[in-house]
Design goal:
Length: 916
């Protein structure tokens, strides 16, 4: 059964673990066929996953930047050239952790080996359940299964996603499954893990605790706390009446207690139980709750969530619920509705809270004791979910489904979101998330810990994000004190306990915001979009930059803000610099914190993948380099240099063409505009004289040099379109000149040349395409740096065309909102597919091309045969009719409907309200 290379010690240990897992599986799931091989395979897979997570953490936190960690042939292996560690050496888990602690310059914490062992063991058991027992196993599309096949109410569906997300655990923490008993430092038993962990979809039988009011502090008040229990749990109040008598009921408040905490309470607070100020009551038939992702927060069927302390260390921290957290929940739940936050954000209140009185509040218990006698009630999000929408924990969307893909991929597939829609979908998603987290911070200095466990996304049936839900007010909100001082009427600091740590430095605010907004959310989502839809990661990063910049720029101070506008704008500028401009930024180092055995955050510097700087600039600025990150290699300065080099090359090409072409006839070409005249704008200021002079010259030159004339005009047309800002306004003049110069393939009645039309349209489209390609390659940094506001406006307009990028491209081409050259450059930035750009440009240019070519043909006739007003009027009418017919298909459907409604209203006909 075991590899020959495995050590006897590890072989014995593995055999014992396999037997323990097998025994529990056979007892708990009798209908499933279990074998030692199946259990051992799960255990080996869990060790391999632990090795992969450990390797990622060592590299990301630069403890061992070149670490290679693996589990092969029954042993762990660590290799690092930087630390001189050979991969040939087989290691036990103990030795592996010792080596890592030495590399980090720390002494290995005593409990870390237990944490690692139980993490592997619990992960193996979760794998066995997921692959052999779980309802969602072997489903090809889990998203469709839940909403089309699963026979459950909305409540149960949300609980299903909580359990599903728990299989993967924390996205980056190495000890993502560890559960240690606080008092003994030993792993929690396998049966307790099964009974109380969210992965296994079991109900937890909560216990009732009756506490005398004099030893408890309840929010909003003891009486209101009693009313809450009478409303939700009259059975519990009847049990209390039987225990203490109806006459004494009002002397007590009720709390739920987690089963794992019952004996801990008795041991921790023996005096309170002896004096009967605390009583564990006996209840039957009620008190069941489902654990959620956070383990200590449970879903009570009576329409709320309850957060309870447990005497366990999960991942890295003891999971108590402190009085500070309890008080913060109550205070902030009253404050938050007064703040002017974005409508896309839903904060779940935690109004009902209570904790044991401690020495700071005239109680007899110590603060550490009070942390395990508390309860927090959180509102359920389900009544707030919009009809037809689906609420999912963010952690679930990043979890791997039985089909081997991320849940996001199944959401996109079910909603029909494909390659043509994903950039628009992603832009809208980023916009909502950015507003939810950036607006509260800029207005009030408010940071909430919206990582994957604490955030829920509300999706419409077509898969678009509509709102972000946030849970975890107490202990999950931090504040910039300087910003809060601008709102003296909101100051709540005097209501907090002296032990609170809610106010943090501005730089830490920026780091925490970046962690929850970008590193835990948007950047991983961008990576998944990139891999699934084969979209360049940098294109998605550009969307993040644009949306964050637009959100920061459009943010407005709150009405009662005492800060001046200049102070607010400076504050916003500091945030923008931290998120998008600084070459390096801080990231929380969870493994370093665990090795240091501290709860205080430890940050490391790493490259900012959203900063428009070169890799070398980041390395020089802060000495931090991470080759695994995708850093743009071309900055703003380099882009400007490349843009100018391309322009010089184009000018050199034109000069070479002109100097090698046959000479112009002097008699007809003595007064034509020169290239410098074009640059100075003479072609635009004096179009009539310029065109006539050029026409006379080139008409004569064209007789003997047709190919040189055609290639020269068309090439110059394309170059002016590519370098649009330097040739703005010349395309119209050149189109008229082409119409005047060419009479080949002419229509006999109007003398309209189809060859001239082909030259004009192809020059316009090819020049625009050249500008699009050049912007995609080197011009994006320039636009973000010099035209960020215009880019934000462009994205805002795009949101009005949700789901139809092609229609938006047509709109840009026919509307006067943006210069033509800016559209050519900017659409490459906002994710416009090149095919849409090309086809929409070809269609949209037809009316303007017809007008300019027809004007040129009329000028040619005037120059050749003199002014004929009747003929001119006839051709002008035909030209106007043709333009109108070509323009009709370009009118958006919404505008058609509105125009038709106005016409009906003018004629006195009935108009539907929606049409108006």
């Amino acid at each position: 059964m075991y590899s020959e290379g495995i050590s006897p010690q590890l072989a014995n240990e593995t055999a014992a673990l396999v037997q323990s897992l097998l025994r529990v599986c056979c007892e708990q799931w009798e209908d499933t066929q279990w074998s030692e091989d199946r259990v051992e395979d799960a255990l080996q897979a869990a060790r391999q996953r632990f090795a992969c997570r450990l390797q990622a953490a060592l590299r990301m936190e630069r403890i061992v930047p070149d670490a290679e960690v693996s589990f092969q042939d029954g042993t762990f292996h660590l290799q690092s050239e930087e630390f001189g560690i050979s991969k040939k050496e087989a290691m036990t888990l103990q030795r592996l952790l010792d080596k890592i602690a030495v590399c980090a310059g720390q002494k290995l914490p005593e409990t870390l080996i237990h944490e690692s062992q139980c993490c592997i063991l619990y992960d193996a058991m979760a794998m066995l359940f997921q692959e052999n027992v779980w309802d969602g196993r072997r489903k090809q599309n889990l998203w469709r299964f839940v909403y089309e096949e699963l026979d459950a109410q909305t409540h149960s569906k949300l609980a299903f996603w909580e359990s599903f997300a728990a299989f993967g655990g924390h996205p980056t923490h190495v000890m993502f499954k560890s559960k240690l008993d606080i008092s003994t430092g030993q792993p929690l038993g396998l049966r307790e893990v099964l009974d109380y962990s969210p992965e296994f979809e079991r109900s937890v039988p909560l216990r009732l605790l009756a506490a005398q009011c004099e030893v408890m502090i309840a929010f909003p008040s003891a009486q209101e706390w009693q009313d809450f229990w009478w409303t939700h749990h009259p059975q519990a109040m009847e049990v209390l009446a039987e225990e203490v008598g109806k006459a004494h009921m009002n002397e007590y408040v009720m709390l739920w207690v987690h089963p794992l905490n019952v004996e801990n309470l008795r041991k921790t607070l023996p005096r309170h139980f002896e004096e009967k100020s605390l009583r564990i009551l006996q209840q039957q038939g009620f008190g069941q709750a489902r654990p959620t992702l956070s383990f200590r927060t449970l879903d009570v069927p009576d329409g709320y969530y309850v957060k309870l302390p447990v005497p366990l260390q999960l991942t890295s921290w003891p999971r108590y619920v402190s009085p500070v957290e309890i008080q913060e929940s109550a205070v902030l739940s009253k404050l938050l509705p007064k703040l002017d936050l974005t409508s896309n954000l839903v904060m779940l209140p935690e109004t009902w809270t209570c904790h044991l009185s401690f020495e700071d509040t005239q109680g007899v218990a110590t603060y550490p004791q009070a942390r395990y006698c508390s309860m927090l009630v959180r509102d359920s999000p389900l009544p707030l979910v919009r009809d037809g929408h689906r609420l999912v924990p963010l952690a679930a969307t990043f979890s791997t489904t039985p089909a081997g893909c991320m849940l996001w991929e199944e959401i996109w597939a079910t909603a029909g979101i494909g390659c043509s829609e994903i950039l628009n979908w992603f832009a809208r998603y980023v916009q909502v998330v950015a507003e939810c987290q950036i607006i509260p911070f800029l207005r009030y200095g408010l940071i909430f810990e919206a990582h994957q466990q604490n955030a829920l996304v509300e999706l419409s049936q077509n898969g678009w994000l509509t709102r972000l839900f946030y849970r975890e007010i107490g202990g999950g909100i931090e504040w910039d004190r300087q910003r809060l001082d601008a709102f003296p009427d909101l100051d709540f600091s005097s209501q907090l306990y002296a032990r609170h740590d809610m106010f943090i430095p501005l730089q830490t605010c920026h780091s925490n915001l970046r962690h929850t907004l970008l590193e835990s959310h948007l950047l991983p989502l961008a990576d998944k979009c990139s891999s699934h839809f084969s979209v360049a990661t940098e294109q998605l990063h550009d969307i993040i930059r644009l949306e964050l910049s637009a959100t920061i720029r459009s943010a407005q101070p709150a009405a009662d803000d005492l800060w001046k506008v200049e102070q607010f704008e400076e504050y916003a500028g500091l945030l923008r610099a931290s998120l998008l401009e600084e070459a390096c930024c801080k990231r929380k180092a969870l493994l370093r914190m665990r090795l240091s055995n501290t709860k205080d955050p430890i940050f490391i510097q790493h490259t900012n993948s959203l900063a428009l700087v070169s890799h070398k600039e980041c390395e020089d600025a802060l000495g931090c380099i991470n080759t695994d990150l995708n850093i743009r290699a071309v900055g703003v300065r380099q882009s400007l240099v490349l843009y100018l080099l391309f322009m010089v090359a184009a000018v050199a090409g034109v000069w070479y063409f002109v100097t090698t072409a046959p000479p112009l006839p002097q008699a007809q070409c003595s007064e034509i505009v020169t290239p410098m005249d074009v640059i100075r704008g003479k072609l635009v200021r004096e179009p009539q004289k310029s065109i006539l002079d050029l026409w006379n010259c080139l008409r004569e030159y064209k007789k003997d040099n047709w190919w040189h004339t055609t290639a020269g005009i068309w090439g110059i047309y394309v170059i002016f379109k590519i370098f649009g800002p330097f040739g703005a306004g010349t395309s119209m003049v050149l189109s008229v000149l082409i119409g005047a110069l060419y009479d080949e393939w002419a229509e006999p009645n109007t003398h309209y040349s189809f060859l001239a039309h082909l030259l004009g349209v192809s020059g316009e489209v090819c020049g625009g395409a050249g500008g699009w390609i050049m912007s995609y390659c080197i011009g994006r940094e320039i636009l973000l740096h010099f035209a960020a506001e215009k880019m934000a406006t462009l994205k805002k307009e795009m949101d009005k065309f949700q789901g139809s990028m092609f229609r938006y491209m047509l709109f840009l081409r026919v509307s006067p909102l943006f210069p033509n050259w800016f559209v050519n450059y900017a659409t490459a930035m906002i994710g416009m597919p090149f095919s849409y750009f090309l086809v929409a440009s070809t269609l949209a240019i037809q009316p303007a091309a017809c007008m300019s070519i027809a004007m040129g043909s009329m000028l040619r006739d005037v120059g050749e045969s003199g002014l004929d007003l009747v003929k001119l009027a006839k051709r002008g009418g035909m030209m106007a009719t043709t333009m109108a017919l070509l323009s009709l298909p370009l009118i958006p459907a919404d505008d058609w409907a509105k125009g038709l409604a106005r016409a009906k209203k003018f004629l006195g006909m009935k108009v539907p309200e929606k049409a108006e």
